[in-house]
Amino acid sequence: xxxxxxxxxxxxxxxxxxxxxxxxxxxxxxxxxxxxxxxxxxxxxxxxxxxxxxxxxxxxxxxxxxxxxxxxxxxxxxxxxxxxxxxxxxxxxxxxxxxxxxxxxxxxxxxxxxxxxxxxxxxxxxxxxxxxxxxxxxxxxxxxxxxxxxxxxxxxxxxxxxxxxxxxxxxxxxxxxxxxxxxxxxxxxxxxxxxxxxxxxxxxxxxxxxxxxxxxxxxxxxxxxxxxxxxxxxxxxxxxxxxxxxxxxxxxxxxxxxxxxxxxxxxxxxxxxxxxxxxxxxxxxxxxxxxxxxxxxxxxxxxxxxxxxxxxxxxxxxxxxxxxxxxxxxxxxxxxxxxxxxxxxxxxxxxxxxxxxxxxxxxxxxxxxxxxxxxxxxxxxxxxxxxxxxxxxxxxxxx
Length: 399
Ligand SMILES: Nc1nc2c(ncn2[C@@H]2O[C@H](COP(=O)(O)OP(=O)(O)OP(=O)(O)O)[C@@H](O)[C@H]2O)c(=O)[nH]1
Prior knowledge:
The protein folds into two domains: 3-212, no CATH class; 244-393, Reverse transcriptase/Diguanylate cyclase domain (Alpha-Beta Plaits, 2-Layer Sandwich). It has helices spanning 3-7, 20-60, 64-90, 97-117, 122-139, 144-165, 170-234, 244-261, 275-301, 325-340, 369-385; strands spanning 265-272, 307-312, 315-321, 355-361, 391-393. A five-stranded mixed β-sheet has the order 2-3-1-4-5. It contains eleven helices and five strands. The two termini are 83 Å apart. It is α+β, with helices and mostly antiparallel strands. A hairpin with a 2-residue loop joins β2 (307-312) and β3 (315-321). It is rod-shaped. The protein binds guanosine-5'-triphosphate (GTP). Guanosine-5'-triphosphate (GTP) is lined by residues 238, 271-276, 279, 284, 287-288, 291, 313-314, 384, 388. Its EC number is 2.7.7.65. It holds the Pfam family GGDEF.
């Protein structure tokens, strides 16, 4: 038996889960229904008890025995109704079990007390006891153990009262005892079966729920993994800018949209000047830090609608939709200036960073980014050639 199945194992004699925690959870889950059914059963018992005052009257008339019986019946009825009210307020089925068992003891005592008061109607009372045993097991919700103990009390009490007050023969007493034993066995087996089936149903429901929860957890885990993978694929790990492939995808979309809208579009190719000497002088870690600072300066120089990515090494690219060549020139100059005024660490002293920017302006025949990149790269190369720290714009495409 797997550990999962073991938790839902039901005891073959008590009809309860072997696992105490599971048993408590089960009882809590049926608490509301049990309360309702118990209260309903108590009201019905009170009604049945009340109805028998009519037969008492027809048998005894307004005699002393009748009034004694009436007092007993009124006590039982009042207690039943009081318990119905109490169960509605405090009848938790996981903790206050005794409150659910109490009505059985009160009704059983009431039935036993009828024997000395109406000793001549024993046959009717035997029927009432058998019916009560069945009702205790099946109609009034209780644990099997609670119902069984109450039924044994009723049976033994009734037999004792019959022996003491009715002058019944030992053979008849034995016959009644056998009848009550039979009633108890049938009631016990019926309730055991009901308890077993209800708990199995509960177990199945919970197993299914557990599996669903597990599945939901796995789906959430996979989704978070996918999101992490997407971030890894779309973001440059050092600068947090778009990765090259993601930048290309986004820039292609922007270029296509600009063509459809007949709007201007520019592309920057940015390269940090003399970065090798930075690495050589200050080390790669400091070089990495400077790259992230330059990336930040670039982002701060752009509009939210512009898209920037790290092209590789110390090279960045920017796509500027809805940007005329004149505006692109202004943005590039601003970006260059922001990089030049970057605050660096004290130990770096007067070190000033610079970038060279090549700009390409989209033309009508540029169906994808390739031609634009080539032109921007050419301009970048020209800028490097002319001494770096400058903005160079391709004249192609400028009206
Ligand atoms: N710290 C750091 N350095 C990088 C990274 N990627 C590329 N580099 C370095 O950037 C330097 C680029 O050197 P070069 O291509 O010779 O260019 P440069 O020194 O910037 O000179 P110019 O571009 O001609 O002005 C190399 O030393 C690379 O190792 C990076 O992620 N971190």
